[in-house]
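Q: What residues go here?
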């Protein structure tokens, strides 16, 4: 029996979301841009999903734009904002612990001559308001800070950024990568004060290959692609309606408060059980998103433990799935020493996880400590 604890990498698609995708591939299969009855039905499905997502985020449906996922949404937000505002300044503020889809975009902007300020987190993995305040000025055109970190679960209070931008007389647009936070904590676009927000389906039991970008009404970013009229020309091309419909269903199934309570209890249970193991230390802090626990198992490299656990059908990660096993830039930025970082694993929960999954995780970490240490050192 498998024990899947890698939900920050991807989640199992819900049955209802999968059935909606199948329906929109085999039954209601029209092109949403077509003017005949099948096209009109398809467009109704498209707009219904848009409305569901908008309601969840507390915004208007015409502020939601569909993309192929979080990476494209992040790139669209970042490059689109910079392209629009480049005459106003040359400075961008982000953090050193962002997802690779943000950091790699920032590297490209540096190659194009932009100044990028990478803010370091505090010991809890949080980007403080004071650091943002000291970095933002009247030449800053974009601030991009994630809501919840994908490796440690550290949560940033992005709602403070808008006031900083205004007080510092900055023209900056504010972007947050909310891929790990959306569906797990209540985030509302208006309360957050952001201009741009990224979400993705496959972290909330929707399919891979679909995400969305919120763009605050009255704000404009330049398109990166050119073609048809779809998504108000920001993201032209025939919409992936089966995926969009499935995303809408996944969002409609969210029970944020109920699941948060359940996952918080499971998080506490996991920490209690893991604390029994000599040699285990915690890299995630107590106020982090409860869906993620980052630990280090002293003396065993991450990949070695990961493969041992996988052999016993316990599935975790050695960090961000997109990093493909590279050393964690997040833990390094938090000041965690190399040996500890090299032995880190990320445990991430979903509503489907139980205490039994944790028990098997603990069982095989203990076995790994008994059998693997001698092979490594």
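A:
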């Amino acid at each position: 029996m498998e024990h899947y604890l890698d939900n920050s990498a991807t989640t199992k698609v819900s049955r209802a979301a999968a059935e909606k995708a199948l329906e929109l591939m085999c039954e209601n299969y029209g092109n949403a841009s077509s003017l005949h009855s099948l096209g009109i039905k398809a467009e109704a499905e498209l707009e219904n999903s848009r409305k569901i997502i908008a309601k969840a985020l507390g915004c208007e449906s015409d502020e939601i734009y569909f993309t192929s996922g979080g990476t494209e949404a992040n790139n669209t937000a970042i490059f689109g904002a910079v392209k629009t505002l480049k005459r106003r300044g040359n400075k961008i503020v982000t953090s050193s612990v962002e997802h690779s889809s943000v950091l790699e975009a920032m590297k490209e902007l540096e190659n194009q001559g932009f100044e990028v300020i990478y803010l370091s987190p505090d010991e809890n993995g949080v980007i403080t308001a004071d650091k943002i305040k000291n970095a933002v000025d009247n030449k800053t055109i974009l601030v991009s800070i994630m809501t919840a970190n994908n490796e440690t679960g550290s949560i940033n209070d992005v709602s403070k950024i808008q006031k900083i931008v205004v007080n510092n007389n900055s023209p900056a647009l504010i972007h947050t990568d909310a891929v790990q936070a959306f569906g797990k904590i209540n985030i509302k676009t208006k309360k957050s004060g952001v201009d741009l927000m990224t979400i993705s389906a496959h972290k909330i039991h929707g399919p891979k290959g679909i995400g969305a970008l919120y763009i605050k009404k009255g704000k404009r970013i330049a398109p990166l692609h050119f073609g048809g009229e779809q998504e108000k020309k920001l993201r032209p091309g025939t919409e992936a309606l089966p995926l969009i419909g499935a995303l809408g269903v996944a969002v409609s199934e969210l029970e944020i408060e109920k699941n948060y309570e359940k996952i918080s209890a499971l998080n506490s249970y996991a920490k209690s059980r893991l604390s029994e193991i000599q040699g285990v230390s915690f890299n995630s802090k107590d106020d982090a998103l409860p869906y993620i626990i980052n630990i280090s198992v002293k003396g065993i490299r991450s990949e070695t433990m990961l493969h041992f656990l996988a052999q016993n059908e316990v599935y975790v990660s050695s960090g961000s799935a997109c990093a493909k096993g590279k050393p964690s830039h997040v833990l390094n930025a938090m000041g965690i020493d190399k040996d500890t970082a090299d032995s880190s694993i990320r445990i991430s929960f979903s509503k489907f996880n139980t205490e039994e999954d944790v028990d098997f995780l603990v069982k095989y970490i203990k076995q790994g400590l008994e059998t693997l240490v001698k092979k490594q050192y």
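A: Context that may help when evaluating the design: The chain has a mean pLDDT of 95. The first helix runs from residue 15 to 26.
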